[in-house]
Amino acid sequence: MNRSEDTATEEVEHANTFGSLPLLKSERVWGGMDFGWVNVALAIATWAFLVGGSTAAFVGFQQGIAAMMIGNAVGLCFMVLASTVASQRYGVEQYTILRPVFGVAGVGILVFTVVLLTEMGWSSLLGIMVGRATSQVAGVATEAELSEYGPVVTLGALAAIAIAWFILSRGPVTIGRLNKYIGPGLLIITAVLMVLLIINTSWGQLMAAAPLEPFDDPQLNFMIAVEFNVAVGVSWYPVMGSLARMTNSPRAAIWPAYSGLLIATLLAQIVGMGAALTLGNSDPTVWMIPFGGPLLGAFILLFICFANITSMSSIVYSTVLALRQSSGRLLAGLHWKWLCAAFFVLPAVLAFFPQFMYERFVVFVTLSGAFLAPMCGAIIVDYFILRKQRIDLAELYAPGADSAYHLPGGVNWAGMAAVAAGSGFYLWIYNPVTLDTEPAFNVVTASLPGAVIGGLVYWILALVLYKRRGAAGFDTTDPNRLTGNHK
Amino acid sequence: MDSSPGKVQTELDRRIEIIHTDEAADPSRRALSAGDLTLYVGTTVLICALGVLVMVL
Fold first, then answer.
1. CA A147, chain centre distance (Å)
2. pLDDT tens across A257-301, in order?
3. What are the backbone dihedrals phi and psi of residue A97, each rounded to the nearest 5 degrees, phi first?
4. Which residue, A226, A236, A333, A361, has most beta carbons within 10 Å?
5. Does any CB of chain A come closer than 8 Å to the CB of residue B34?
6. The complex's ipTM?
């Protein structure tokens, strides 16, 4: 093979590794169990313990378990349908397959705003958690009184970001290798913490423990806890499709995504909530050492630090992939590792303000849910109802105006209006910043109706603006074939 | 292909052709059936009902 052939082969391999090509059957190597472990590894990072602890701010143990079950089940249900199904069927990276719903430029707008900010927020939060854990372990080792949000936290967060960048710059294979060990390890640790919870407390103590910072209205407390957990379920959207395209059947995609995330999340959240209720602090980096003892607690914290770093690598991998795919030629020439480095700039800046991120954790999660939920609604209506689960691959990848999915300006206005209407409704019925709610919030919460409104608006506008004119690819898909030939 | 013409475009065309022809009827490319979707949504409803039960009991 000569040099130019080598370069061409490298180009193809690079394009395939970084999501530019649809995967063939032989490349979709994950069965249900494989994908299940990937989801377990993602779900049981420190964030799950923190979500459990944050839920305890509003409700007690029994109501908290109910809120977590209902919230996660609902949020994951429509998130998994929106993110995994089409990507699995066609083996296509999830933001490429969104082009029919939002248009090429529309996907870019959403990726560079909603998705980018959501994932930057999660990354900085994970980094800060590592910093907090480092500070706790250092405090125990040196018997020094370290500040809750002091320089050790910032240094630990910056070190975590640097390590995550190093792992990420080596590509997806390294991330996959690490997750093989992290997933089972985290499951064992959660089981150990569950045992410690049972040993350290009694059932009566757990059931009697009062919420940490509730409002006066018990129903409002419960619905805020449900909404928070729905938003947590939905917040998996940005990464799931690109992972699901690796699976070898539709069932190997949706059930492990749903059950893996649900079960692992619930287990870790229940432990986090129980510890928070009995020890009075929602932060796992604070309660882990008193809970597990100095040696075991410190060991678990260090393992979870490592798990946080690999979780960070996984979510940033999917997001940077999305940025590349959505930017057209803009970022195509930029080397992968520098693109990853650019992503980490904002999380690194936020590492200098750890208190800001930590104290706004619930606000950040629910606010991202306000935009992701209507996106999911529009995607579900487009794929399942209007396109009847058929996408024309050749048209999907055709450039610019050559594609049947192309729309003037590259924007599907039905999709963008759906996100605007759904998120507008969400922020009207429940303002995550001020925590003001409309009376209806106590019955329907915010994410689910936000998704339904997003779906309905998309349905109506797509019919009126595009489908009856045969635009946006609505006239190209032959119902008798999986894909079509590019005309 | 968006940004990488030539060899990558050829590979993309080859893959689309394989997916369109050889793999079109493969179970891995199957759409979700109404039964699959009903079971999936029904499971969610069941878990929510269990959640309500946990709260009530």
1. 30
2. 999 999 989 998 999 999 899 888 878 888 888 878 888 888 888
3. -75, -5
4. A226
5. no
6. 0.90
